[in-house]
């Protein structure tokens, strides 16, 4: 029997257990070495309506966002991050839950009765609250309000409620606040919550030309209408970004002043971008790159500073935050943790998806009138190619080679049939088609619904369109490859066993 050389004083009978224990300690140390350094606070900053290319670190000229750029250079910047939708509540629900729209239940913004995040769905707030963090949200506009179910898990929820007594839902200034005020409320929350906290900050400045930065923050030569009022323009958008960046800088400085910056896990992401005239559209609700591609910066104690080129989804944020804190997700998530990328290694690479259901949204009047081809949109991006699939008008679908054509000017559909079939198969394999307006969930009285509708209209989401009129066509399914096939229900293709692709046909 071997005698341990350096343990002659250890009674023979104990040598085994002690060595085993040393082994366990080594294993624990090894496990600890893999654990990220302790995170004290989690700060999620969602920038409403911010295209990736509005930030200097994503290529915007003129140094418009020095504070965000500095944060990016000390953290992980994801060059190709994609939103799940170009609509505020829908996209935020994915950010907060790690679930795609068909699973988080908030697929459109407005309809008869209103729509809410499912009551039993874990969110970052419910999960981090359970882990002992004080949870606070400070918002800058109504579309992430309690009305949509975002308040669950937060003990402080600084938001907007157009049904509250004394609120005029038609007065847009009562439904949003500027980033200086939002930042002030954030710093107040942090000061009054010295314990480890989760803070969700929602900034809104670049969303529109209604609530403007102070005059001294606006260049003099901005485009105006005949009445002298500022109109939406790329120059105004850039000025609003510049102002917003200063406020993010103030928030970060506040964290630093409280000695809470270095131990904070900070995520900066946008819910979607903005058209700004690209592809002939100024606002959001389409899925071209200027709307679907968003900035994503993660800074955490122990994370490498680097730029990641792989395509990732905003679905991945909730799993990443939970993973970095060594917390188990509350159920199966659609996103994957980005932790391997943050640790300097390679994470999963996979297709990313987005969808947009303007055709079922009661407050989508403007886009439905001007761009009926965007009533139903599904986007899939894989291996540098993007398919923008329009199931109600499949021949109006678009295919882009993002490496050769990042601005999506050269539609390769239907010419590149093989590439179309490849991406359509990925989309079909995902399924999750929305073929009827989502069931309305109770959201209070009809008077409350009217207030909400008025509030959305005041914020620029014009109403009037109602659910998609499907008098002349109906949903059916086909095979991406064998596209002569038609099935009334989703059925695998008899010829290739491929997953069914949603399409439409004349109803008579
Ligand atoms: Zn938004
Ligand atoms: Zn087939």
Low-confidence spans: 1-33
Could you tell me the CATH topology label of the largest domain: Alkaline Phosphatase, subunit A
CATH H-level superfamily title of the largest domain = Alkaline Phosphatase, subunit A
Count of the separate structural domains: 2
**Fraction of residues in H or I helices:** 25-40%
Q: In whole angstroms, how far apart are the ends?
A: 88 Å
Tally of separate helices:
13
Our Rg estimate from Cα atoms comes to 25 Å
| Mass-distribution shape | globular
Number of strands: 15
- Level-1 CATH class name of the largest domain: Alpha Beta
Q: What small molecules does this complex bind?
A: zinc ion
- Return the structural class: alpha/beta
Q: Architecture of the largest domain, CATH level 2?
A: 3-Layer(aba) Sandwich
Mean pLDDT: 89
SSE order in H/E notation?
A: HEHEHHHEEHEHEHEEEHHEHEEEHHEE
Could you tell me the strand content as a percent range?
15-25%
- Biggest beta sheet attributes: 9 strands, mixed
Provide structural commentary.
This protein is α/β, with parallel strands linked by helices and 508 residues long. The protein is built from 13 helices and 15 strands. The strands form three sheets. Strands 1, 2, 3, 4, 5, 6, 7, 8 and 9 form a nine-stranded mixed beta sheet that branches. α6 (179-192) runs parallel beside α7. The protein is globular. 47% of the residues are buried. Residues 1-33 have low confidence and may be disordered. One zinc ion binds at residues 48-49, 88, 271-272.
